[in-house]
Amino acid sequence: MKQLLKQNIASHIVLSEDETEDFCQLFQQKNIKKKSFLLHAGEICRFEGFVTKGLFRVYHIDKDGFEQILYFATENWWITDIDSFTNEIPSQLFIEALEDSEVLLISKKDKEFAYADLPKIEKLFRVMTQKTHAALQRRMIDNLSKTAEQRYLEFSEKYPLLIQRLSNIQIAAYLGITNVFLSNIRKKITSRK
């Protein structure tokens, strides 16, 4: 299970085998059943997680009761509510398993220990934070400048395997459109082929 985490770390920074092993020992494995929650809105997020198996959705429910999916996390992805985790404030997000899943969790205390004991770990999280920030910026620009059809096509091209694991309702919530509108987009695309 921790092999995937080790590969992920190696894709961002260079650590010795001992450093990698020491860092990975700080994570606790947790199995999450489909439709179970890793985090509920109102709770303080006490973890950063690394998904080793399965699929999660991270979402917010707006004042009208509509789900707004921020992102999906599948194998080899990190997952958290960074605002709640960092600032120790109640989360506005839900993190739900869409499949039976496995995740490795690190607490804030253990992460801070890693920063002090293994200085390269701070670089790891800085690099990952920069990549996440860039991806969120691109997503915001896309939401402001592209049509729903363009966003759907790009999502399906970028994540062809993920799209097969999601329902139309989940994809629509991620794109910020209704399920009916997504169905119309798909019909329109199919009719052009």
Could you characterize the architecture of this molecule?
With 193 residues, this protein is of the alpha+beta class. It has a domain at 2-108: Jelly Rolls. It has 9 helices and 8 strands. Strands 1-8-3-6 form a 4-stranded antiparallel sheet. It has a 4-stranded antiparallel sheet with strand order 2-7-4-5. A hairpin with a 5-residue loop joins strand 4 (55-61) and strand 5. The longest helix has 26 residues, at 120-145. The chain is globular.
Structural class: alpha+beta
Molecular shape: globular
- How many angstroms does the end-to-end distance come to? 42 Å
Contiguous helical run count: 9
The strands making up the biggest β-sheet line up spatially as 1-8-3-6
The top level CATH class name of the domain at 2-108: Mainly Beta
How many strands in all?
Answer: 8
Q: Which fold name corresponds to the CATH topology of the domain at 2-108?
A: Jelly Rolls
Helix-strand string: HHEEEEEEHEEHHHHHH
Radius of gyration: 18 Å
SSE layout and pairing:
Layout: H1 2-10, H2 17-24, E1 28-32, E2 37-39, E3 48-53, E4 55-61, E5 67-74, E6 78-79, H3 82-87, E7 94-97, E8 101-106, H4 108-117, H5 120-145, H6 148-158, H7 160-165, H8 168-175, H9 179-192
Antiparallel strand pairs: 1-8, 2-7, 3-6, 3-8, 4-5, 4-7
Helix pairs in contact: 8-9
